[in-house]
Amino acid sequence: MPLRFYFDTHIAKAVADQLRASSIDVIRCEEINMEGAKDADHLMYATRETRIMISQDEDFTILHSHWQKAGRKHAGIMKVPANWQGAVQITLLIAALRFYYEAEALGAVDYESEIANHIIYL
Predict the structure, then answer these.
(1) Quick one: pLDDT at residue 1?
(2) pLDDT band at residue 100, thresholds of 50, 70 and 90?
(3) Residue 78 and residue 33: Cα distance in Å, rounded?
């Protein structure tokens, strides 16, 4: 199954637009009226929809730890560095997400063992 992504408000719209132009499945929280949702609600949505959570928010690191301790599973979290802003964020995040998308499609990355229920620091 191809990787699918879910972006919170910290991720530039241009990232979603460019990934979609490459037929990569992306949903932004604003598109489903969750822009003001709590981080736990974002993670629950992403998990329910089998989408990798993409955010710069440090709270997802804490949520990941809490979920691990509680034995809860999630679809994966990719933590974007705080210093990736503007054009830098757009360029680097598109490259990183395309890499994971293509690597998983080729079998070089295994979703179940390397992404699901993991936090990946980009």
Answers:
(1) 79
(2) very high
(3) 21
pLDDT digits (tens, 9 = 90+) for 4-41: 999 999 999 999 999 999 999 999 999 999 999 999 99
| Residue 89 tokens, joined | 């964020």
Surface-to-core class of residue 44, CB atoms within 10 Å of its CB (0-12 exposed, 13-18 middle, 19+ buried): middle
Q: Determine the Cα–Cα distance for residues 6 and 47; give it in Å rounded to an integer.
A: 10
Mean predicted lDDT score pLDDT of the chain: 96
C-alpha distances in angstroms, 20 versus 2, 24, 42, 56, 72? 13, 5, 20, 20, 30
Angle at 17 between CA 37 and CA 55, to 5 degrees: 35
Per DSSP, the residues of 33-81 read: T-TT--HHHHHHHHHHTT-EEEE--THHHHHHHHHHHTT---S-EEEPP
Integer Cα distance of 74 and 67 in angstroms:
8
For 7-30, the DSSP string reads E-TTS-HHHHHHHHHTT-EEEEGG
Q: Where are the domains of the chain?
A: 4-121
pLDDT at 66: 96
